[in-house]
Amino acid sequence: MRYFVQIAYNGKDFHGWQVQPNANTVQAEINKALTTYFNSGAIHCIGCGRTDTGVHASDFYLHFDLDKQIDLKESTYRLNRILPRSIAVKRIIEVENNAHTRFDATSRTYQYFIHTKKDPFANEGSLYFGYPLNLEKMNEACKLLFNYSDFTSFSKLHTDAKTNICQLMHAKWRKEGDKLIFTIQADRFLRNMVRAIVGTLLDIGQEKIPVQEISKIIEDKDRGRAGKSVDGKGLYLSKVEYDYID
Questions:
Q1: Cα angle vertex 194, ends 28, 146, to 5°?
Q2: Topology, domain 2-95
Q3: CA nearest 164: which of 195, 193, 184, 199?
Q4: Of the candidates 132, 153, 145, which has an alpha carbon nearest to the alpha carbon of residue 202?
Q5: How many Å apart are CA 105 and CA 171, to the nearest integer?
Q6: Were 170 and a residue from 72, 86, 185, 246 both cysteine, which residue would form a disulfide, CB within 3.0 to 4.6 Å?
Q7: Is there a shared CATH topology between the 2-95 domain and the 107-241 domain?
Q8: How far is CA 84 from the centre of its chain?
Q9: 10 Å Cβ neighbour count for 72?
């Protein structure tokens, strides 16, 4: 039997999602908790994607297989008792045996948070950026992103991705008081893609480069042309969607 688990996690204490030797990761903690609670041999879960060191998720799905029926609510409660405070299980869903959290996701939404006034209580989950920004120009540049599907210029180098094609669905900045929030949605994302796009848009917002330059950057398919990747602490995977899950 296959089960989807919807979780949220604070990435501050982890070296990303994926299991790594000699590093604490979210996937490693989940595997350990599942194996401990169900006591049916080693369980290795599969996630809907990967997040880098320090990146958070307010919505994330993983799946695992088990050869028995489980009490979904009781298992949710018990796993939350085992897992560290930085990881929360929202719910467990029984699915078809061929359902897959990574390959079946129809879209993913990321958000990046910036605070523009110094705030000691915001630093863990938001980037402090005290320089003036032209939000109108940043959103003009966002509109140009929709002219493209090959985002090689915003991808981490030497990844195992088979294609750098992504279908963008939404990209926009909004202001809430002293906070700026960037929301971007696509069918898939490349490694480091959102952080590189945000870094490039911040260059445009500071008027270091013109709005139209983002088109040239994308067309050059050269990571060196894009802006510096911003810190992972302000980035959240905020929504993952499936056709068969409400």
A1: 140
A2: Alpha-Beta Plaits (3.30.70)
A3: 193
A4: 132
A5: 19
A6: 185
A7: yes
A8: 20
A9: 14
**One pLDDT digit (tens) per residue for the chain, 246 residues:** 999 999 999 999 999 999 999 999 999 999 999 999 999 899 999 999 999 999 999 999 999 999 999 999 999 999 999 999 999 999 999 999 999 999 999 999 999 999 999 999 999 899 999 999 999 999 999 999 999 999 999 998 767 778 999 999 999 999 999 999 999 999 999 999 999 999 999 999 999 999 999 999 999 999 999 999 999 999 999 999 999 999
Structure tokens at 40: 């049916």
Which DSSP string do the residues of 30-56 spell out, in sequence order?
HHHHHHHHH-SS----EESS---TT-E
d(CA 99, CA 4): 9
Fold of 107-241: Alpha-Beta Plaits (3.30.70)
Domain boundaries, the chain: 2-95, 107-241
Q: In 3D, which of 173, 172, 169 has the Cα closest to residue 187?
A: 169
C-alpha span between 177 and 81 (Å, rounded): 37
State the Cα–Cα distance between residues 213 and 221, nearest whole angstrom: 13
In the chain, at which residue ranges do the beta strands (DSSP E only) sit?
2-9, 46-47, 56-65, 87-95, 107-115, 127-128, 168-176, 179-186, 235-241
Catalytically active residues are 52
Contact by Cβ (8 Å): 178, 117: yes
